[in-house]
Design a protein that fits this description.
The protein starts with a helix and ends with a strand. It is built from 9 helices and 4 strands. About 45% of the residues lie in helices and about 10% in strands. It has a 4-stranded antiparallel sheet, sandwiched between helices. Among the domains are: about 75-135, no CATH class; about 140-205, Beta-lactamase Inhibitory Protein, Chain:B, domain 1, CATH 3.30.1450.10. Helix 8 runs parallel beside helix 9 (about 160-165). Strand 3 and strand 4 form a beta hairpin. This is Lipoprotein.
């Protein structure tokens, strides 16, 4: 009985093998029809999904918990931006700041400038080389002579003309190399004091 069962089993296995004639590993691999699932084709896309297969670096960073260093740096930047907004809102209209703020590369530089006393801001701009781009409207020699007689000051006046008009200053402050003649002269006037600013030895402004 056992012998018959063994013969029958071998016969059935041989018969089944005939059904798979010509099949090999390579054939099976080539006929593989498996594929990746695609959004919308194989599953619905819910609200908030982009339907893309990948994320940008910015998206990955947004989903990645920030390190303690990143958190501290972001808090520092946020604090500086808040400080700058408060300084700007508390300032009166400052033509120098409005004109040159785009020159400052960082928020910290803007804060530093706004924390300077108004009388020192022009010196700071001159030390950075920003004022060199200003074009002074030159006055004629006749206009300057008339201003000297009237003890007035005009843009473009030389230092000698200012001395002729107002006399010698109480104090002279020099910015940078003296040969560039970037100076600030202090005068005592009825209402307090007045500063006259020179660049290249010519009057560029006053306050």
């Amino acid at each position: 009985m056992k012998r018959r069962s063994l013969i029958l089993s071998l016969f059935l296995l041989t018969s089944c093998a005939d059904l798979y004639t010509g099949r090999s590993y390579l054939t099976e691999m080539e006929s593989d029809d498996s594929r990746f699932f695609n959004p919308r084709d194989d599953f619905p896309v819910v609200g908030g999904d982009s339907g893309r297969f990948w994320n940008t670096e910015e998206e990955t960073r947004a989903r990645t918990p920030a390190s303690l260093g990143d958190i501290a740096e972001e808090n520092r930047k946020r604090s500086l931006r808040q400080e700058l907004r408060e300084l700007e809102s508390s300032q009166s209209e400052d033509e120098l700041y409005q004109k040159y703020q785009h020159k400052f590369g960082t928020v910290s530089e803007r804060i530093y400038f706004l924390e300077l006393p108004p009388r020192e801001r022009r010196d700071y701009l001159a030390s950075r080389g920003f004022l060199e781009e200003e074009k002074v409207e030159m006055t004629s020699e006749r206009e300057r002579a008339f201003a000297v007689r009237g003890q007035d000051i005009l843009l473009g006046m030389s230092k000698n003309e200012v001395v002729e008009s107002w006399g010698k200053p109480l104090r002279i402050e020099i910015a940078g190399n003296p040969t560039y003649e970037n100076e600030r002269w202090l005068y005592r006037v009825k209402n307090g004091q007045k500063f006259i600013y020179f660049e290249g030895g010519q009057v560029q402004g006053w306050e």
